[in-house]
């Protein structure tokens, strides 16, 4: 198995992505609905991390048609598809690495991520969660629906495999596509470390889990 660079991986799969997520990944179709239900009615500005083609925005726009969305993604192909879908909405799209991009301080009412963060280490996630925390206003909410490991042994296996593959390919850094899901407990600990006061698991279907974190 060869690892592909993250942006190249998704650029190659733009045309099949929506069908794959909706019909082949267990929990996603329901997860989009559940996430949208958790967006507070008061949300005016929404940060969407790893927004892809914007599948999660469909249900959100039905509830909040005037919400202003800032979407960040590495893949130009994915962002182009999202722009085509929602060219009549208030959407600002940024092609960037969300670890490096400056979200600002206290700007957003709500931040979301859907099936995008199961590729990164605890350290990377904690740094990102801290950025998200700071980007939210005083009553801000972060909602994450992602692939999570059932046990610590499962998590350890995927991280070990990722390390082995990178070593075999001589990869020392950068974003490459390989799933390294963390356990729910570890996810909650990282969010607490980043500053979120209350983190709750609200829903789970198979490996898809919905967490809501309150600032």
From TrEMBL:
It comes from the Bacteria. This is Class I SAM-dependent methyltransferase. GO terms for biological process: methylation. Keywords: Methyltransferase, Transferase. Pfam families: Methyltransf_25. Residues 47-140 form the Methyltransferase domain. PANTHER family: TRANS-ACONITATE 2-METHYLTRANSFERASE, TRANS-ACONITATE 2-METHYLTRANSFERASE-RELATED. GO terms for molecular function: methyltransferase activity. The keyword Methyltransferase applies. It comes from Acidilutibacter cellobiosedens. InterPro entries: COMT-like (IPR016461), Methyltransf_25 (IPR041698), SAM-dependent_MTases_sf (IPR029063).
């Amino acid at each position: 198995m060869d690892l592909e660079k993250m942006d190249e991986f998704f650029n190659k799969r733009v045309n099949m992505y929506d069908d794959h997520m909706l019909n082949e990944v267990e929990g996603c179709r329901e997860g989009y609905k559940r996430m949208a239900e958790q967006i507070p009615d008061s949300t005016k500005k929404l940060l969407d991390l790893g927004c892809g083609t914007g599948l999660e925005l469909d249900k959100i726009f039905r509830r909040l048609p005037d919400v202003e969305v800032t979407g960040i993604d590495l893949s130009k192909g994915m962002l182009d598809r999202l722009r085509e879908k929602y060219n009549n909405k208030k959407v600002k799209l940024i092609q960037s690495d969300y670890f490096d991009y400056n979200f600002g301080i206290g700007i957003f009412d709500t931040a979301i991520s859907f099936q995008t963060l199961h590729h990164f280490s605890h350290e990377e996630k904690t740094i990102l969660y801290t950025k998200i925390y700071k980007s939210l206003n005083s009553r801000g909410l972060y909602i994450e629906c992602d692939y999570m490991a059932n046990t610590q042994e499962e998590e350890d296996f995927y991280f070990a495999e990722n390390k082995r593959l990178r070593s075999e390919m001589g990869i020392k850094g950068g974003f490459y596509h390989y799933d390294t899901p963390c356990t729910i407990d570890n996810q909650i600990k990282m969010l607490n470390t980043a500053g979120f006061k209350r983190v709750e698991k609200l829903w789970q279907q198979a490996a898809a889990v919905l967490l809501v974190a309150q600032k």
